[in-house]
Specification:
The protein is mainly beta and about 350 residues long. It has one domain: 7 Propeller (Methylamine Dehydrogenase, Chain H). The chain is built from 2 helices and 30 strands. The protein has a 4-stranded antiparallel sheet, with no helix packed on it. A 4-stranded antiparallel sheet has the order 3-4-5-6, with no helix packed on it. A 4-stranded antiparallel sheet has the order 7-8-9-10, with no helix packed on it. Strand 3 and strand 4 form a beta hairpin. The longest helix has 28 residues. The N and C termini lie far apart (about 85 Å). The mean pLDDT is about 95.
């Protein structure tokens, strides 16, 4: 046998090389899929932060494979969290220090998708918006039973209570309107055309105005709930798809998260213009403000919580960027205890709320 023939027979065939290459690619893809699945499924410990201390999780008793949580609402020692994917409303009763240890959880089932929760000042009744049912459900907070259902416009989302006018305000995204509900008769008393898709809103009780983000036109509107009219509307320069909003009432500033370009813009209410911006975590959704510590908290679909410091003369800088978990996109801060509560989405594990203590 010639030397060339022996050499050719000893070399692997073309098909063997192709099979080995395909096997290698499949193994790499399998490792990537398992890594992504674990990353989405298993929440780990949040990354280190200088401004926050992670206190632990409050697990929520959902039996669903997928749990996407939405708004987080604080009232005294209670935290209300809504399930966008399953329609559940969770009432978390906290111990006096607000820590996760010792917290108890009760669940109210309902049709998806549950969004915002707003309470009367007494805390005895709460109103929850449901976008697929196009309703606001009124429930007793003591035992979580539904006492009334109020039909509202399509895609009911954000909701808040204005004590000055004694009205509940409900923003409906697809319908481009806001609905006003009288809590005494539990009936709709007016609708306000918004002309665009509303997202989060904030109430300035001293000015008797409500500020509403308009996501699809990158603007913010001021609404007088007494006259039930928009009194002003201004563009949000440098903000693409405004979502979360928080108010610094003392300085008359709005802090607005911009979902598509991942910015936090600062809007001067008196000058009616954006006066600053800070880059934050990708796809921000929720914004909260602690007026005592002068800190702004944002989080979004990417699961990065950004802590922004509010300094003198409208100077803003990022203090921390904390890696949480994919889908941890809504939060609230307690202005008394300065604890931050973040709602996590979950796949194949229980949904949860992460609790953080603010550090000086």
């Amino acid at each position: 046998m010639s030397e060339d023939r022996r050499h050719n027979e000893s070399r692997p065939s073309k098909w063997k090389i192709i099979r080995r290459t395909l096997l290698g690619v499949l193994l790499v893809l399998l490792v990537v899929i398992i890594t992504v699945a674990l990353w989405i499924t298993l929440p780990g410990t949040p990354s280190h932060a200088t401004t926050l201390r992670f206190d632990g999780y409050i697990l929520l008793p959902s039996q669903k494979f997928l749990s996407v949580l939405d708004y987080v609402t604080l009232h005294d020692n209670q935290v209300y969290v809504t399930g966008e994917s399953n329609g559940d409303v969770y009432k978390i009763t906290l111990p006096s220090d607000g820590a996760p240890a010792g917290a108890t959880v009760a669940t109210m089932a309902g049709p998806p998708a549950a969004h915002g929760v707003a309470l009367l000042p007494s805390g005895e009744l709460a109103f929850v918006s449901r976008s697929e049912a196009n309703s606001v459900d009124v429930f007793d907070t003591a035992d979580l039973h539904v006492v009334d259902k109020i039909p509202v416009a399509d895609d009911a989302d954000g909701i808040l209570y204005d004590p000055d006018s004694d009205l509940f305000y409900v923003a409906s995204g697809d319908a481009h309107v806001a609905t006003l509900i009288n809590p005494k008769g539990r009936r709709v008393v007016a609708t306000i055309p918004l002309g665009a898709k509303p997202e989060f809103q904030a109430l300035d009780p001293e000015a008797h105005l409500l500020y509403q983000n308009l996501q699809d036109i990158n603007a913010v509107a001021a609404i007088d709930l007494h006259t039930r009219q928009i009194t002003g509307q201004w563009p949000l320069e440098g903000c693409d798809a405004p979502t979360g909003m928080a108010l610094d009432q003392a300085k008359q500033r709005l802090f607005i998260g911009c979902n598509h370009n991942s910015q936090l813009v600062v809007f001067d209410i008196n000058a009616h213009r954006v006066i600053g911006s800070v880059p934050i975590g990708k796809n921000p959704d929720s914004v909260a403000f602690d007026p005592t510590l002068n800190r702004i908290y944002t989080t979004g679909k990417s699961g990065i919580m950004t802590v922004v410091g509010d300094g003198d003369k409208d100077t803003y800088r990022v203090l921390d960027a904390v890696n949480l978990h994919y889908g941890a996109h809504t939060l609230a801060v307690d202005p008394k205890t300065h604890k931050v509560y973040v709602a996590y989405a979950a796949v194949a594990v229980k949904p949860r709320v992460a609790v953080f203590s603010s550090q000086p």
